[in-house]
Structures are given as C-alpha cells and as structure tokens.
C-alpha cells in the first residue's frame, strides 16, 4: 500500500474535477430513481486517466497519493456518490497490490488494463452464509484444483460495480481438510459468471451492487493471487485501514456537504408569508446551520490529520482509525439528519436532492466493519492497554 505521494505526480486540476462533478450531478437523480448503472461516468473518468490515479507514473498511471485520491473521491462524490464508491474500490486495490503477494505479471497486467482501457476491479467478499468476512468465518465459495488451474463456485452479495467489472477478486477457500483462504483473480467475462440484478437499496442505488454467481468458473493456477491459512489473515494492516477510512470518510462527508449546501440555499430562498423574510434570518435556522458546520468542520480536521499521518508513514493503529470511521460517518449522518428535520416535508420530497443525500449518507453504516464491531475492538484494545 502506498504511503506517500509520488513526487512526479501532477495534481488533477480543479477544472477537470469541476467538469466531472457537474456532469455527473446532472444524471445522478435519474440513476438513483432507476437504480441504473452510470456507465458513461466511467468513460469520462477513463478519458481523464482517473481510473489509473493510484497507479505509478512509470506504469502509465497518475501516481496519486492518499491526499490527492481523497480529494478526487470527494469531488466525484459531490456529483454522484455511487460512482465515487465504485471508484474507491478501484483505488484501494491498485494502491494496495502487494509486490510480494501478487505474481508480478498479473499485477502488471491489471495495471496496464486500467491505464489503456479503463478496466475496473473490485474484491467480492460478502456471502449469504458467511455475511461479511470481517466478523470471522470461512467463505463458502470454493476453489477446487482442476488440472493446471482452478474451478471457482460461489455466491457473492453486494458486489459493488458488478455491471462494469473487468476483474473480480473473489474471496474463497480451497478444498480439503486444511483449506487456505484468499483472493482469486477472475476475469469478469469468464464463462460461468452470472450477475443477478438484486440491488434495490435505499441509497447508493446506482452502484450496481448486485449478486454475482460463479458456477465452476475456470481460471489459471497463478490467478490464486494471495492464499494463506485463515489465521494468517488476522494481522493488522494500519496503512490499508487508513486508506479505506480516508476514502470512505471523504465520500460520505462530501454527501453531507451537499446536504448542508442544499439546506443553506433552501433557508436563504424560502420566504414564508407570515414571516416576510427568508428562513435564514431566524435564530433557529442560524443555530442549526452552525451545528451542521461544526460537525463537518470536525470531519475535515479528522480527515486531514489521518491523511497527513498516513502519508508521513505513521498511520494510527487500525483500532484508532476505525474509530475515526465511526466518528466521521456518524457526523455526516447527523449533519444531513439535522437538515431533514429542519426542512420537514420539502426535505423529504423526492423532487429535492436532500432526500437522496439522506438515503445515501445512511449507507455509510453498512460498510464493514460496522459500528458494533468497531466499538467492541476499541473497547477490547483499551482494556488491554490499562
């Protein structure tokens, strides 16, 4: 996982990000309403090289570090948060490919594919029987040896970006009494893969997080890119956790900022006849906007500090970083909830974007690890330190 910005990297211009943000915002409500996947957004991202943002310049990418990547995610999320969520998965995998774990030719191949044709990749982990792997247990998805390769069978849930994935990192186990667990790199167009369009969520409706069914899917032997005994997956990776929390935090904070801005415009322009002045002149609305801004200021400071420490090579311990996820996403939800409460029916009507922002920001609670796991880990760590 990259820990510092690449000195040869040229930051993505504000003009490019504004163009993408504004273009994505024009279709975000339509994609949300229809739960349709925004393929056109990823064509635009590829046009500007942003699907290869975290790939090194010498490999054809843009070489963005965590600070730049967080900035890009936040701006894209202001246009269409579902697009930003798919983008995060791409960034995390390309920033985190470990040289000593992946076969070199596979690492170079997916990097080249991302650069040349905008190929996307995501790790598919959640299963009906297992739930999220962060709570422990072995996956039901199984890889069996077949000559010089593997045959993969399983069922994955909440597979973000599934309609557009060129590669799927499938979390599975090997057959036998002493199974190894890890990732198998499966091309998305492999025979035996079926996408069931089950995603009908309250928020992030355009993320294409459908079910993926694998039935005896054949892959080469070296596409088992990282297999370990189950206990070997229990180690802490503080840098990877910091990247995950920084990017998800940037996404949901950006959604909350959009909710905040809509509320401010509403209060400035709404002039009730019995008041004869904008709602923004009322103490109650001024106090509410101050509370919202305090929550988002807290988020900004926490995210900036996390990014700074990580890029300096000293990320916080994973348990502490996960507490930041709990705080930042909680602040984002609370900020939008305050705006919804203050605006009443206008805030909840689907003709206004605040209702969509509220549904989207609530999805922050679903990302593993969930709040109960985060707080339990923090409490267990705290008791051990005393």
Automatic annotation (TrEMBL):
Which positions fall inside the Acyl-CoA dehydrogenase/oxidase C-terminal domain? 271-365
**Can you name one GO molecular function term for this protein?**
oxidoreductase activity, acting on the CH-CH group of donors
Transmembrane regions = none
Acyl-CoA dehydrogenase/oxidase N-terminal domain boundaries: 14-90
> Which keywords does the record carry?
FAD, Flavoprotein, Oxidoreductase
Q: Which InterPro entries match?
A: Acyl-CoA_Oxase/DH_mid-dom, Acyl-CoA_Oxase/DH_mid-dom_sf, AcylCo_DH-like_C, AcylCo_DH/oxidase_C, AcylCoA_DH/ox_N, AcylCoA_DH/ox_N_sf, AcylCoA_DH/oxidase_NM_dom_sf, Mito_Isobutyryl-CoADH
| CDD domains listed in its UniProt record | ACAD (cd00567)
Q: Which residues form the Acyl-CoA oxidase/dehydrogenase middle domain?
A: 139-217
Which cofactor does this sequence's record say it needs? Answer: FAD
What's this protein's family per the entry? Belongs to the acyl-CoA dehydrogenase family.
Can you name this protein? Acyl-CoA dehydrogenase
Specify the species.
Sphingobium chungbukense
